[in-house]
Amino acid sequence: MAWSPLKLWDEQTPQRKRRTECGSRDMNKVRRDLGGKKTWAYIQLLWYWLWFLFTCFFLSSFPCTQEMSRNFACRNVRICLGVVTFPVQVPFPFPLLFLQVIKCKAAVLWEANKPFSIEEVEVAPPKAHEVRIKILATGICRSDDHVVTGGLVMPFPIILGHEAAGVVESVGEGVTSLKPGDKVIPLFIPQCGECSACLSSKGNMCIKNDIGSAAGLMADGTSRFTCKGKPIHHFIGTSTFTEYTVVHDTAAVKIDSAAPPEKICLIGCGFSTGYGAALQTAKVEAGSTCAVFGLGGVGLSVIMGCKAAGASRIIAVDINSDKFAKAKELGATDCINPKDYKEPIHKVLIGMTGYGVDYSFEVIGRIETMVAALASCHYNYGVSVIVGVPPAAQNITFDPMLLFSGRTWKGSVFGGWKSKDSVPKLVADYMKKKFVLDPLITHTLPFSKINEGFDLLRAGKSIRSVLTF
């Protein structure tokens, strides 16, 4: 076969190889006319160099084709110059039009109160302003279990999961903030940067968020997941219990590429939700007294936030005394179990503090403890924050005098953080060792053991279980 200065090392079919060989023989006369194989080599190199310049510079100068040129595929190529051979990548015109459906494993919940089923699903390519992400690690959150048990009503079948870290596999048309290869955290609270909520300094609930939506679909009203010929619903715009997922580009943010995914995935929900509830929502002051109801991963993160804010007394409340050692390790000064007292827990806390705590946090999601947390606050200026996801279709009843006297009752979603602005900073703080995540992770399991992870959660034997792929 005639020598060529450029050899493509893609896997070739026999038919393609025969075409290459025939093409080489047919060009022998042209090569002789051009002065031999050395001149022909220079011509070929010049051609590929010009094509490279055209793709990278000329096409990218036009707004209408910039996305296509930026997302062209690259072929592995080996350049031969004399006896020296070295690999390079040369762009070839395979634009977004040719992105393929990916088949992968996902944990599908077909109906409530049933185990997850590991299925092969089809994940469609990202559409305009969407990103397809390869999930590297995902945490099991109590909010996911609320869907399983029916406490949070969502359509079935569905792929749950919302606390994860991954790598961008491909992007849709119009995506400029992310590119393939970026390490990212999916965001169940997006940040479009344009709506009234994003532009306000008072909150973080982007109007484009999908929390509480009964649709379970992407913005165009369709799903990117298919299993056994049936569309599978998305969960709060993330759906991370799968090897690949598709999210809107406002619902993912680039993070430090060196950050360990099996650790920083907790910043996607649990840690940020609790830590921010203390620092962002309640704005705990130095020297204050705090009470935290519920010592799961989020509750322990609240304790970490209170400690970081300089609280002088942090009272941890839980009916599982086995969690007290971890709570004290992370900053709790007192730990109490309501089962050890005959009187209501809010009276116990008032008795411990005089007139009630400065700040209380309900991190369970139970109506009764929400009222108890409010009643445990200082009657005149106490602040109580609801952090746990409330049960669906339930009303709360309380004495309005609890608020009339001066207490403040607040809610907190994702710790009050503006997601795209704050998540990269939180990851950077973790990398600088400003806080720890390891104590929150009690189990690291392969993705196939997702049901075991939920069993540990329900039995109170885990704080955070992380699934790896």
Automatic annotation (TrEMBL):
CDD domains membership: alcohol_DH_class_I_II_IV
Any single Gene Ontology cellular-component annotation: cytosol
EC top class, as a word: oxidoreductase
EC number: 1.1.1.1
Subcellular location, record wording: Cytoplasm
Stored PANTHER family: ALCOHOL DEHYDROGENASE (PTHR43880), ALCOHOL DEHYDROGENASE 1A (PTHR43880:SF1)
Name of the protein: alcohol dehydrogenase
Source species: Anser cygnoides
Lineage: Eukaryota, Metazoa, Chordata, Craniata, Vertebrata
